[in-house]
Specification:
Pfam families: MOSC, MOSC_N. This is MOSC domain-containing protein. One of its GO terms (molecular function) is pyridoxal phosphate binding. This protein has three helices and 22 strands. By secondary structure, the chain is mainly beta. It has two domains: about 1-15 and about 20-25 and about 135-260, M1 Pyruvate Kinase, Domain 3 (Beta Barrel), CATH 2.40.33.20; about 30-120, no CATH class. Strands 1, 2, 13, 14, 15, 16, 19, 20 and 22 form a nine-stranded mixed beta sheet that branches. The longest helix has 11 residues, at about 100-110.
């Protein structure tokens, strides 16, 4: 079994950047979900309510980032401009991040059509992981999301119009032998890094957003089919959430080894 695709989403809900390798640590892949859009009150904004965010492309750098979107001139920001503490809320987590670039706020407000502010997570996150030690980025709840291409293939066999790995916004895509075998994993090693599989990843309306068009599919797929085929105690699930147990580099083509399963056979 191999790692076949690797992604970071530098802005929460932006287009995923396909990588050949990435530094992995307890907080997540380097540059993953380190930027966040919020309302003036600090409530997070994602593709669930603003589907056009999936068409924003982010080029992260050591001192800032460059944002592009259809019909807009590029926006460049520097970390040094983000020096004002600002409350941020991601689901039930309330924590502090950094704000400070009025031009960035105006750029995204114009693009989305409603007031918003751009926040930077900072070199150190003020948000703690669920049920574990360490920092967390602006991700929904866990630092890593893995999906299995065999499971995607089985899902697509049920759909009139197939979906891609990009619909599920994973960090790691693996080519396993069997569909849904990721449900049974407890610990996996990808190249240099070992991961604990924490929970199945519950899905929402965001998976119905076409990553190329930035709009929801009229047929409600793949959620309609997942509701019928993947209703688990944790929700309507596809993929698994994980946390890293050590730091290292992961690379496309790395061997993926199941270190421990949840069930003994």
């Amino acid at each position: 079994m191999r790692l076949s695709e690797l992604y970071v989403h530098p802005l929460k809900s932006s287009r995923g950047n396909a990588l050949e390798s990435a530094a992995a640590g307890p907080r997540g892949l380097e540059h993953d979900r380190e930027w966040l859009l919020v309302s003036p009150a600090g409530h997070f904004i994602t593709g669930r309510t603003a589907p056009s965010l999936v068409r924003v492309v982010v080029e992260p750098g050591p001192s800032g980032a460059r944002f592009t979107a259809p019909g807009r001139e590029a926006l460049a920001v520097e970390h040094a401009s983000f020096k004002t503490p600002h409350d941020a809320t991601v689901w039930k987590d309330l924590f502090s991040a950094w704000h400070g670039d009025a031009a960035a706020d105006a750029w995204f407000t114009d693009y989305l059509g409603h007031p918003c502010r751009l926040l930077w997570l900072g070199k150190e996150s003020q948000r703690a992981q669920k049920g574990g030690d360490g920092e967390l980025s602006f991700a929904d709840g866990y630092p890593y999301l893995l999906i299995n291409r065999a499971s995607l293939n089985e899902l697509n066999a049920e759909l009139a119009e197939p979906v891609t790995t990009r619909h599920f916004r994973a960090n790691l895509v693996v080519d396993a032998d069997f569909a849904w075998e990721e449900d049974e994993w407890k610990r996996v090693r990808v190249g240099e890094v070992e991961f604990e599989v924490t929970t199945p990843c519950s899905r929402c309306i965001f998976s119905t957003v076409d990553p190329e068009l930035g709009a929801r599919r009229a047929d409600g797929e793949p959620m309609r089919t997942l509701l019928r085929t993947r209703a688990l105690p944790e929700g309507i699930c596809f993929g698994v959430n994980m946390r890293a147990l050590n730091s290292g580099v992961v690379r496309v083509g790395d061997s993926v080894e199941v270190v421990e399963s949840r069930f003994e056979f």
